[in-house]
Amino acid sequence: MEKKYRGEFRMDKKEFYIVDKRILPNSIQSVIKVNEIVQAERISKYEAIKRVGISRSTYYKYKDYIKPFFEGGKEKVFSIHLSLMDRPGILARVLDIIAGEQMNILTIVQNIAIDGVSRVTISIQTTENLLRKIEEMLEKISSLDSVKELRVIGSN
């Protein structure tokens, strides 16, 4: 929903993207580095900010908007949303790829196909931080001919 504030339009809805950290501006990468240092070394944010060499205002401007795809802990749960062509066996192929990467499927929600396209949401659990395997799995799934869309819609 859009709301008008002093002649400007502002979106209340948050939008999330998964991007490669290497394309982010230096200020954002520095905020990420501060968070990593604080987490790994258990030092104060102030000490980490000084060590990284950014201003406190830069850190506090962005800190609430930057979260790693997966945060600490052994078990990771994330969900993917798929638009699949209504063809026999396509969902089974997707599930085989997930199982082949040693990931557990927690839930599957599939809607009835409309105009030849079915929407599916799958919640997946991994037992280790397998970001590289997750990326490979997502690439394998999205390369299937009958997969029209694949989006990661959440993670813990």
UniProtKB/TrEMBL annotation:
Superkingdom, natural source: Bacteria
InterPro entries: ACT-like_dom_sf, ACT_dom, UPF0735_ACT_dom-cont
Signal peptide: none
Domain ACT residue range list: 79-155
Family: Belongs to the UPF0735 family.
Protein name, entry field: UPF0735 ACT domain-containing protein HMPREF0202_02335
UniProt organism field: Cetobacterium somerae ATCC BAA-474
